[in-house]
Recover the amino acids of this structure.
């Protein structure tokens, strides 16, 4: 059973999963489907070894008990064929696994397994691909390693404090060997992953620890990856040494302080005297720099005053020119207004016509006097409009 990604995903970290249980492979595919890795799963050990031989495999996840092969034997073969391939054991018998290999017991926790895979597939730090010039001074303390065959042209063997990079075997050398090389980047080989003994090595200046058993190829590859860190440490030490050599007042103060007791009056007087001398020298230097000599002109002040006078004259001339331009502009607009007034036509003259007052005629009119109105009677037994005396018939 094989599950591979697309061609674009093959540029990512490659993880091979080997297990005889199809449900385990299916669970791993489902767990890692969103992780930035190229996942290859199989239940055949020969297929897994073929992938290791023909492509770069970054992590191998394998079971220990399988019908066709033993997990420990698979790990040994992979370490010989591909030293850069990391391994992770996924087994239900954690007591039978080798102590030098990372282990996840079945049934596993998804978050824990995913975090362990992320740690093992994390990209490696920067490594120099070509041998450096000059060669790195390497000290091997209690280690029998044919470094010239594993990394030709990279390292030159030295002894003692002159080393830039040191490889120490904890079982054959003591902590004093690490303290004797304070400026070197130190890598320790040990079979003890914890305890007070390892704490002593860290306090002595050990920078990195490799747990045994480990192959010579892995050790050589680790040393090559430590070359940039060792060179960076040497550059910083050289810069600090140059900085200390340039500051002679600090060295004088240190010698005076060491010559006398720190709490004595003599040391305090010596420090005060040195600081007073430095202050006086600084004040004299500043005075000689800024105060001109009597009877001699200062070229800097002369140029400054000359530039100031020229700038004042330039500002005055600019103001006069601007005032003249403003006056010309005002006169021009006044002339234009006068010209417009003279050329404008006069309004037409209005004639006043006197009209005679109207005559009023009074005509007498005779208005007749009003006749009294006849009284209105309501209809009764005499009929409408008939009443005695008006000549109309009535009943």
């Amino acid at each position: 059973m094989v599950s591979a990604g697309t061609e674009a995903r093959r540029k990512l970290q490659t993880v091979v999963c080997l297990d005889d249980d199809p449900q385990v492979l299916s669970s791993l595919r489902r767990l890692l489907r969103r992780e930035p890795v190229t996942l290859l799963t199989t239940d055949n050990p020969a297929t897994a070894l073929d992938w290791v031989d023909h492509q770069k495999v970054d992590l191998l996840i394998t079971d220990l008990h399988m019908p066709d092969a033993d997990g420990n034997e698979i790990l040994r073969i992979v370490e010989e064929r591909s030293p850069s391939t990391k391994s992770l054991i996924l087994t239900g018998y954690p007591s039978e696994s080798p102590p030098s290999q990372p282990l996840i017991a079945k049934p596993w926790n998804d978050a824990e397994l995913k975090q362990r895979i992320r740690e093992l597939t994390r990209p490696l730090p920067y490594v120099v691909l070509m041998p450096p010039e000059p060669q790195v001074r390497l000290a091997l303390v209690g280690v029998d390693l044919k470094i010239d065959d594993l990394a030709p042209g990279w390292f030159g063997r030295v002894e003692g404090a002159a080393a830039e990079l040191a490889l120490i075997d904890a079982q054959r050398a003591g902590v004093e060997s690490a303290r004797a090389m304070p400026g070197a980047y130190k890598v320790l080989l040990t079979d003890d992953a914890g305890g007070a003994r390892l704490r002593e090595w860290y306090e002595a200046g050990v920078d990195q620890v490799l747990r045994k058993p480990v192959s010579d190829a892995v050790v050589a590859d680790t040393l090559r990856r430590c070359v940039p860190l060792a060179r960076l440490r040497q550059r910083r030490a050289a810069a600090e040494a140059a900085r200390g050599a340039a500051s002679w007042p600090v060295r004088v103060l240190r010698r005076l302080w060491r010559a006398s007791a720190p709490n004595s009056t003599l040391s305090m007087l010596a420090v005060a005297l040195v600081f007073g001398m430095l202050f006086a020298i600084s004040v004299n230097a500043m005075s000689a720099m800024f105060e001109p000599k009597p009877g001699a002109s200062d070229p800097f002040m002369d140029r400054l005053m000359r530039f100031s006078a020229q700038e004042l004259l330039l500002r005055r001339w600019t103001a006069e020119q601007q005032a003249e331009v403003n006056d010309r502009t005002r006169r021009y607009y006044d002339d234009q207004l006068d010209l417009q007034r003279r050329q404008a036509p006069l309004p037409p003259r209005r004639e006043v016509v006197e009209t005679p007052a109207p005559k009023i005629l009074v005509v007498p009119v005779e208005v007749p006097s009003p006749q009294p109105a006849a009284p209105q009677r309501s209809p009764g037994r005499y009929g409408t409009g008939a009443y005695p005396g008006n000549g109309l018939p009535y009943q």
Notes: Residues 136-245 form a domain with the Rossmann fold fold (CATH 3.40.50.2300). The radius of gyration is 57 Å. The first strand starts at residue 13 and ends at 18.
